[in-house]
Amino acid sequence: MILYYSASGNTEHIARILAKKLDDECLDLRERIRSHDYTEVCSQKPFVICAPVYVSEMPRFLRDYIKRLPFRGSREVYYVFTCGVKEGIAGALAETITVRKDMVYMGHTGIAMPSNYIVSNMFPAPTHDKCVQLIRDAEKKAEETAEIIKNGGRLVSYKVDPISKALTIPLNAFWSKFMQPTKKFFTTDKCVGCGKCSKVCPLNNIHMENKRPVWEAPCAHCMACISNCPTEAIEYSDITQKKEKYHISKYLDKTGG
Ligand SMILES: Cc1cc2nc3c(=O)[nH]c(=O)nc-3n(C[C@H](O)[C@H](O)[C@H](O)COP(=O)(O)O)c2cc1C
To answer: pLDDT band at residue 125, thresholds of 50, 70 and 90?
Structure first.
């Protein structure tokens, strides 16, 4: 069974390629996370957890969900991370969670894709051509990954050194607490009050007031609201206005995906 969370479609796209190649079912965890639904998942085939990378690890809300979720059937778990550059320490932390669940960690892989983190000036959005190329390469890597999983092999990635791990864990805690404010989100006149942003928020933290979204804390800055807005009406501070709003669906027809 392939389980995934995806804000702007990258991870979903990879999860679906894996499901197709492995002839397995694909489960979107968004609604379950939103509604705190911990109904057990059952599969005789290995579990494959697909997640984006946030500040070098899997999203903390997803990590907490996986920790509590009961798994039945297969004891083997693979992880497939999509990231803008590198998966950081995501694999090392995933291994710890898996072992604590008394399951078998079958390794992880990181798949570079266009970065959806458009609310920071530190990370420039990739150009259109670069996005197309990244997605094409990612699709290839997903197919290779599926082949390894199909043959029962382990996914091998680089080894995380203890210093990076020791530095990243507090950085991530700091980032999650102080660097993801919601007060800078706003909507422009393009907002039609459809409420989609509220429905896609994995933390259920956006509510509608007078047909306009209101963001509450905590926010994971996952970009689901910005990426999925049908009229591209959501902006963040003065950072996003000149940036292309990223969602993979804008590129799929151009990659044959
Ligand atoms: C809050 C946040 C933090 C991110 N941090 C990293 C990171 O540390 N390293 C990295 O390579 N990509 C990072 N990214 C980029 C995403 O991991 C990448 O674009 C991913 O494919 C998005 O997946 P999705 O479209 O399924 O949501 C970050 C994105 C977000 C939203």
So the answer is: confident
Question: 54: which DSSP letter?
Answer: B
Is the distance from the beta carbon of residue 134 to the nearest atom of ligand 1 less than 6 Å? no
Distance (angstroms) between ligand 1 centre and the Cα of 73 equals 31
Same domain? For 60 and 13 the reply is: yes
- For residue 235, CA distances in Å to 143, 179, 241 come to 35, 17, 6
**Ligand 1 neighbourhood includes 223 CB (under 6 angstroms):** yes
Enter the pTM of the model: 0.96
For residue 255, the model assigns a pLDDT of 55
pLDDT at 155: 98
pLDDT digits (tens, 9 = 90+) for 7-34: 999 999 999 999 999 999 999 999 999 9
Distance (Å) from CA 147 to ligand 1 centroid: 25
Residue 80 Cβ contacting ligand 1 at under 6 Å? no
Judge if the beta carbon of residue 116 lies within 6 A of ligand 1. Answer: yes
Same domain for 109 and 182? no
Instruction: Note whether residue 257 is domain-resident.
Output: no
Residue nearest to ligand 1 atom 19, measured at CA: 115
Residue 81: name the closest of 101, 70, 67, 95 by CA.
95
Query: What whole-number distance in Å separates Cα of residue 57 and Cα of residue 172?
Result: 8
Q: Give the structural domain span for 45.
A: 2-163
